[in-house]
Amino acid sequence: MITVSTSQAPASSGARGYHHGDLRQALVSAGLRALETTDIADISLRALAREAGVSATAVYRHFPDKRALLVALAAEGLERLGHFQHSAAQQAGGDVGGRSAFAATGRAYVRFALANPALFRLTFTHCATRDDGVPDGGLAARMLQGSAAAIAGGDPETARRIAIQAWALVHGLAMLMLDGQLPADDALIDRVIDSATLWRAG
């Protein structure tokens, strides 16, 4: 989850009684709720301040601008995705570095996107990335990189290729389904992301 800053005390409202660091997480939670009903462009720090019962000044102590909030929401989205994928890998056998578990994390990626479309879109437009564009940091990224390295047998260039191929496949499938170009069909997800036919090291 997002690390909550405790370096300074936020302004507190008498009604909410926030403690050190609580306001930042409360604003992130409010932002996540807003994403369920509001376009990203229409989310405002002032509106979240009103929901949290604090002044705009208190909000700006944690998020100096809207982009800072969106980056925090993206980090939260990536972490939630990672936990969802990790659970799927464990159900597939627990060996996160194995091919079956790797495929399970890919299917979980697409299903997470379909269940959380606004958060998914925001996450991959505002998350931190490596030089090659692959998401950086967080459980989801570590699982992708670790599984690719295991399949590649330790060769870094092969691992990089497999990571990019795997991400491109699941992200592309998710976007095609979100945009209505393919049906959001569980059976189709299972057929396309199949450990028997994908992510060969050779």
Walkthrough of the structure:
Residues 44-63 bind DNA. One of its GO terms (molecular function) is DNA-binding transcription factor activity. It holds the Pfam family TetR_N. Keywords: DNA-binding, Plasmid, Transcription, Transcription regulation. The chain contains 9 helices and no strands. The protein is mainly α and 202 residues long. The chain folds into 2 domains: 1-64, Orthogonal Bundle (Arc Repressor Mutant, subunit A), CATH 1.10.10.60; 77-192, Tetracycline Repressor, domain 2. The chain is elongated, with a radius of gyration of 19 Å. Residues 1-17 have low confidence and may be disordered.
Total helices: the number is 9
**What is the class of the largest domain in the CATH system?**
Mainly Alpha
- The coarse silhouette is elongated
Main beta-sheet annotation: none
Into which percent range does the helicity of residues fall? 55-70%
Give start-end ranges of low-pLDDT stretches: 1-17
Tell me the name of the CATH homologous superfamily of the largest domain: Tetracycline Repressor, domain 2
Number of individual domains: 2
Summed over residues and divided by their number, the pLDDT gives a mean of: 83
Q: Which structural class should the secondary elements be placed in? A: mainly alpha
Q: The CATH topology of the largest domain, please?
A: Tetracycline Repressor, domain 2
Instruction: Please count the beta strands (DSSP E, at least 2 residues each).
Output: 0
> Radius of gyration in whole Å, from Cα?
19 Å
CATH architecture of the largest domain: Orthogonal Bundle
- What amount of the residues lies in strands? under 5%
Q: Terminal Cα separation, in Å?
A: 36 Å
Can you write the helix and strand succession as a string? HHHHHHHHH
